[in-house]
Amino acid sequence: MVATRQPATRRRRSEEMVDTAGIPPETLLEIYETMCLSKAMDDRVWVLAHSGEIALAVSCHGHEALQVASIYALRRGYDWMVPYYRDSAAALAMGLTPRDMMLAFFARREDSFSGARQFPNHFSSRTLNILSGSSDIATQIPHGVGIALASKMRKEDRVTITYFGDGATSEGDFHEAMNFAAVLKIPVIFLCENNEYAISVPRRKQMAIDDISNKAVGYGMPGVSVDGRDVFAVYRAVQEAAARARRGEGPTLVVANTYRIDPHTSNDPDRFYRDPKEITEQRKHDPVLRFSAFLNQHGFLTEEQDAAIAARVAAQVDEATDYARSAPQPVPEDAALYLYGN
Ligand SMILES: Cc1ncc(C[n+]2csc(CCOP(=O)(O)OP(=O)(O)O)c2C)c(N)n1
C-alpha cells in the first residue's frame, strides 16, 4: 500500500518515544490492515460495478483513517454503530468480512444484511451491533439517538456512534437528533465525515460556516473538529467523546475533515463539478499512505510485514469475490420473507 516508500527505520521501538495515543503496536497494525482491506475492497467493487457485475459501488476512499480509528476508540462488539452508505471501512473494523459485503454486492440469497433486498453499501449485523439503515440522508441519526436512549434507560454503559456526511447536517433529522440528545444527555457520538461534497454540492454552497463543529454550540454540546486523515487525532476525539458519554454527560459532535477521492458513487460523473487537479492534489494526502509512512518511519511496520498484509488483503478480496460470484441467487418463493408477519 506504500506508493513512495520511506526507507525502513532501523531504530527499535523501545529506543524512541512515539506518541500513538496509547494504541499498542499490534493494534496499530490491525488498524492499518483494516484500512488496507477497505481500500482493496473499494478498488475491487469499483471494477465490478463498472464491468456490470454488480449494481453500484460507493467508495470510502479518503475516509479510511477516520472510520477505522473511530471504531477502535470504542468497545467493539459492545457499543453500537449506526452507519450511512459510505461506512464500509468502519463496518470492516466492527467485524464484518469481505465475504459478508460481497454477498450483498452480488445480491445473493446468503446476503446476511437483508437477503439481497437492501441497496448496496447498507451494512448491518445483529451480532456486531450494526444497525440497518435507509438511503434517506440523515434518517439514521435519530435512530442512533434512539438506540443510545435505550442503553441509557437500561442503565448500560453502552455508547452509540452514528455517522453522516457534511450534507446531512443540513437536514432536519440532524437538528432534531442533536437537540433531543443534548437535552436528555443521551450517550451518543455524532460523527460527521466532512468530505467537502454532498454529491455535486461543495460545502461552501451548503453552509455559511467553515467549521461544522460550530453547529454543536446551538444545542449545548461540545463540538470538536479534527483532521480526519489522522488516525490518532480521530482516535483521541472519539475516545474522549465516548468517555464523556459513559460518564452520563451526554453527546458530542466530532467532525472529521477529509476529502472524497472517488466520485460520489460509480454512477457519478464528477468531472462536471470538480477539477481533476483538485483530486490529484488531494490524493497526496491519502490517509492509508500517510499511516503507512508513519508506521514505517517509526519502526512499527517493516517492508516484509507490509508485503504480507498486502498479500493477505488481496487473498481475502479474491476469495470473497469468487465466493459471492458463484453463490446462489435469491429464489422467488423468498420474495415476501421479512415483509409480513407469518
Ligand atoms: C433525504 C434525502 N435527500 C436527498 C438524497 C439524495 N442524496 C443521496 S446522497 C446525497 C449527498 C449526501 O452528502 P453527504 O451527507 O455530505 O454524504 P457523502 O455522500 O458526501 O458522504 C444526496 C443529496 C437522499 N438520499 N435523501
Give an overview in words.
The protein has 342 residues and is α/β, with parallel strands linked by helices. It has a single domain (27-327), classed as Thiamin diphosphate (ThDP)-binding fold, Pyr/PP domains (Rossmann fold). Helices cover 40% and strands 9% of the residues. The protein is built from eleven helices and seven strands. The strands form two sheets. It has a five-stranded parallel beta sheet, sandwiched between helices. It has a two-stranded antiparallel ribbon with strand order 4-5. Strand 6 (223-227), helix 8 (231-246) and strand 7 (252-257) form a beta-alpha-beta unit. The radius of gyration is 20 Å and the shape is globular. Residues 1-12 have low confidence and may be disordered. Bound molecules: thiamine diphosphate. Thiamine diphosphate (TPP) binds next to strand 2 and strand 4.
CATH class: Alpha Beta
Per the principal axes of the C-alpha atoms, what is the gross shape? globular
Which ligands occur here?
thiamine diphosphate
* Radius of gyration (Å): 20 Å
Give a short account of the largest sheet.
Answer: 5 strands, parallel
CATH evolutionary superfamily: Thiamin diphosphate (ThDP)-binding fold, Pyr/PP domains
Helix content: 40-55%
The helix tally amounts to 11
Query: Would you identify the regions where 5 or more consecutive residues have pLDDT less than 50?
Result: 1-12
Instruction: Briefly note the structural class of the backbone.
Output: alpha/beta
Strand content: 5-15%
Please identify, by name, the CATH architecture. Answer: 3-Layer(aba) Sandwich
Order of helices and strands: HHEHHHEHEEEHEHEHHH
- Strand line-up of the largest beta sheet: 1-2-3-7-6
Per DSSP E runs of 2 or more residues, the count of β-strands stands at: 7
pLDDT average, as an integer? Answer: 94
Q: How many domains comprise the coordinates? A: 1
